[in-house]
Glycosyltransferase 2-like domain-containing protein
Amino acid sequence: MKYKFSLIMATQGRDKEIGLFLESIKQLDYNLQEVQIIIVDQNDVEKINLEEIISEYTSLNIVHIKSKIKGLSYNRNIGLENAEGEYIAYPDDDCEYYPNTLKEVEALFQKNPESNLILGRIIDKSGNDVIRKWSKQTINITKNNFFTNVSSITMFLRSSKDVYRFNEKLGVGTYFGSCEDTDIVYRYTKSSRVVYSPKIEVYHPHPNQDVSVEKVKSYSLGFGGFVKSNLDFHTFVLFFKVLVYHVLKLVGALMALNKNKILRGWNSVYCRVKGFLEYTKNERE
């Protein structure tokens, strides 16, 4: 392999955040000549011209690819086709790496030669958990516990001819708008040892808690599609548990007569079922 790491970023609608990510790469406690950065750019150049930002980082090994087709999974797969690293990662266009992120990843891969996928956690600059409460313990990820330990920006994969591509029917920019990362992790649990380590840390800003109804619909459809595309005993049990959880939340919203929560709760349940029913396996590319 030409590089140790290939960092694949599919981006749309952001510019200054790209600069912040590249600044974080410059601060890595790692040999930057061993790092390839692939930016798959879905922006209209008249609105956002990333070349102006990228040109400020000539010391980094950056591959800038323009893509006319929108979709997170599709464009990550374009990046994967151009990756020349021993290890693959998929940073978001609004995340940053900490100085020791790649060093910890490499050490963990060397310690676990049988693992083809390693996961980490997301924290803010004060060390607080972001998105969810992350375990402080190292965990072997299995079909039974994968769902609560997944985020695409903390996935690091060992490159091989068998490295999994993203399911292009799942993820932001598609009808089934989520769970493209969940799908990857679940498939790896079937073929490889998967390890979660709290030592691997990635920065991401705290998300807006006021999620729109449209996002609820999209995320829920994605979950249903993910379960259908990987249907077995474990995903069926997961589907049942998640549905029960959201039904109970909906009941609570009904009892409180909270219209916004009722609307989101209904769509959380309905669209998960809808996604499951509408997804067909031959839609995977």
In short: The first strand starts at residue 3 and ends at 11. The longest helix spans residues 233-256. Residues 23 and 91 are 14 Å apart (CA to CA).
